[in-house]
Specification:
homodimer, Aminopeptidase, 2 domains, 8-stranded mixed sheet, 14 helices, 35% helix
Chain lengths: 462, 462
């Protein structure tokens, strides 16, 4: 793309410029059109959001219970006070405290060669450790739990290697994730049920890279706990290739992770009090904690910085909402959901939550909102045209966010910010999730979209 | 974002999954719905496009006349033949041959301190060199040509520093570019008109970075040629701050660039012959040349790899078009447009071009198409629903591409692939434009969108 010049090029260029000009100043189709444009232009021009994100990421990865998570709490409180939010406070929540420990490694040991092949692995969150010397066992590769259970005794005493890839043909990477993540969440349980000694899971990413992507796993009552680790997609492909020619190859896995006693932490809350119905509350939030990889930039420093920025934008522009808009930085989304649960469980006399908006799908260009309540969806869909100028006007049925799930179970309509999802799983839960992967404009525009929606709901109710 | 679990979460998750399922298998609304889905799923799953882009970028930056540009021609020809395209050929075009030379540097020299301040600069494409020892002169900072001309003699013998930023508040970064790029294109001419000795231009980017962003500039008949360079936005801000406190500060600028004699090169052309009306042609293309910075990954290895992949996808899926679809890799878009001009000027007896599609706005997620012809726009707009599943259904009036401009002047409707534009000028014409900035899914989806549109036009006419 170069400079356009000459008569013809000038004419071609004028058409889109004129289009933008006209659409900027056309008669407002709703009272919120000009408000939305002011919010977006301010977000893009002042460009605060990326600064907030960098501040939060500078504390490091923020796994629940870690010193960095505590620093993130302090940062959020200080930042909300700095911007003059109302009623800034910490709400206590007790969180799990799982630590990765100093050692995690794996190698493939071919049966007929001396050479060992290092595998890029990482413990799944919540996993127990292996014995100190590790677990060395044969490997059985499967693509599904059905395939595993059909094996009978074949997995007994072995390591189960769950290697079903995310389906790259899906348009939504979240759909692809939903179609593969059972292996990570339940692989260890299903492996233990057939007598296996550990689970090795192909990383949840749509790309082929050398980074293991961690994430939550769980054990089940009455089922033996076995260690579980993610392996990079590159090494998953290598291991799979090895097993085809050498089915007797073994893997040695060493993990030193540990679950410590629960530990006190906090949700961080601040708000702009509503001028007419202050007891009706619109929550807008993200989660402060992250996995202990990269900076947790997209997951979910993005959502936190956007939620704070959304309130700051309203204050900056003098837009006092009729109902209270409350920013909530949730703790412990990744491995316990204790923050979201505690927030919803807390007794708040006289208060009524009318909506909860979360940004937790990565800080990419906003495309619209997913509304997990059909009545609310029908009402909000009428406001789609307000978001058209920022290309974020797809208000679809279905969505929300993990942290606002407990509110949703109490009847509060959950709303998730939907974004261009193609890049998300390149970074998700891995060392790749760093500040440099966030574009400042896309991040800021997400903040603007959230501010506009929260403001409309605060004025119109839901 | 973590694994969703529990009854409530499962319900929330099912809604979007069901939505995708239903929309995948709903009764087709047009004969092209299922074709479009097959094309997109194949592009994402086979993931050829990123491989093509990496191959092209591996030859290095490809400024017209450079050995790398010649290698790019050879690559394009070989690749089209490898995929079995019809009538693969080189079409000769003579191109300008400007070279940057070994030395480009600048420093600010405060009037009251011994310390000099290095400025990150790069010659603008087409600039003449400075004398070997450089040009050292006082600096006058302006934000517009009007401001410059109002200064009277004040710029005489000095360096004009054009420092009007791109307007970050614009939703389209291309609009912001259009509002600032006159400084780069015409700054040297306007500076020379008032007796200045050089032009220093704030880089065309929406972000603040330490990289100078190059790009084309031009001289005018009868106006003295003075050297012109871009300065990084970071150093533009620093220089501006210095001049506020020290208006007598000087800048020393050294450029060693040179315009060599014109040199032979080629457009590379290959096609799938139409089964019913082979003489009616839909062009689909990008440009092989790039600036001599980074890899030219987004500008425009993306458009080249997408155009080749679009044809490959149709062949892969056995979709033989009724009219000919022709991939054209244009040469010399960046500093001459000789390839686009030569393609349009060539006598092609019996042939009729019915549309030309270009991808040259970066290899980001596709949002739709810009059509630079109102009749064609009205017809194509009817196909918007076909592109909805890939979120690329905004078919707007206004657009095209530089390479297909000469075809447009002959009456061929020009169509540009429109993408999510927020990131583009972070990379554009700088060392930042490298392969790692391209997301393989977004790139592939752009190829799919082009393939679908070209196929529809080939079947339906335009």
């Amino acid at each position: 793309m170069k400079i356009l010049r000459g008569t013809h090029h000038r004419r071609l260029l004028i058409v889109p410029l004129l289009f933008f000009f006209l659409s900027d100043f056309a008669d407002a189709q709703s009272p919120y059109d000009s408000v939305a444009r002011r919010i977006a232009a301010t977000a893009l021009t002042q460009n605060y959001t990326i600064g907030l994100l960098k501040e939060l990421c500078a504390v490091g990865p923020r796994l629940s219970g870690s010193p960095q998570a505590a620093k993130a709490v302090a940062w959020a409180e200080k930042t909300m006070k700095r911007f003059g939010f109302d009623n800034v406070r910490l709400e206590p929540v007790t969180v799990p405290h799982w630590v990765r420990g100093p050692k995690e490694e794996a190698v493939a040991v071919p049966s007929r060669m001396r050479k060992i092949i290092p595998l890029s692995v990482t413990a799944l969150g919540g996993s127990i450790a292996t014995p100190k010397k590790g677990i060395t066992a044969g490997v059985v590769e499967v693509r599904s739990f059905e395939e595993l259970h059909a094996l009978g005794d074949a997995a007994k005493g072995r390591i189960v290697f769950f290697n079903r890839p995310m389906d790259r043909g899906q348009m939504s990477t979240f759909s692809a994730y939903g179609g593969a993540v059972d292996q990570r969440g339940s692989g260890a349980v299903e492996a233990a049920k057939v007598g296996a000694v550990a689970a090795l899971v192909r990383s949840m990413t749509t790309t082929i890279d050398d980074q293991p992507h961690t994430g939550g796993m769980r054990y089940a009552e009455g089922v033996t706990k076995v260690p579980a680790a993610a392996v990079s997609t590159l090494d998953a492909d290598a291991l799979s290739a090895l097993l085809k020619t050498d089915p007797k190859a073994r893997v040695r896995l060493v993990l030193s992770c540990e679950t410590m006693p629960d530990i006190p932490s906090f949700n961080v809350v601040g708000e702009i009090r509503g001028s007419e119905k202050p007891d009706e509350v619109v929550v807008i939030g993200g989660h402060l904690d992250s996995w202990d990889k990269g900076d947790g930039a997209h997951d979910d420093a993005g959502g936190c910085s956007q939620s704070i920025e959304a309130l700051r934008l309203l204050k900056e522009l003098g837009l006092t909402p009729k109902r209270t808009i409350r920013a909530v930085m949730f703790m412990n989304e990744e491995n316990g959901l204790r923050g979201g649960t505690a927030y919803a469980a807390m007794d708040r006399p006289g208060e009524k939550h009318i909506a909860a908006i979360e940004s937790d799908e990565g800080a990419f260009a906003p495309r619209g909102f997913g509304v997990g309540d059909s009545t609310a969806h029908a009402k909000l869909k009428a406001w789609e045209p307000v978001f058209a100028f920022m290309n974020a006007d797809r208000i679809v049925l279905g969505g929300g966010g993990a942290d606002i799930g407990p509110l949703a179970r109490k009847g509060v309509p959950p709303i998730g910010l939907n974004v261009e999802s193609h890049r998300y799983f390149d970074y998700h839960h891995s060392h790749n999730d760093t500040v440099d992967k966030v574009n400042e404009r896309e991040l800021a525009l997400g903040a603007a979209a959230m501010a506009v929606l929260a403001y409309i709901i605060s004025q119109e109710g839901l």
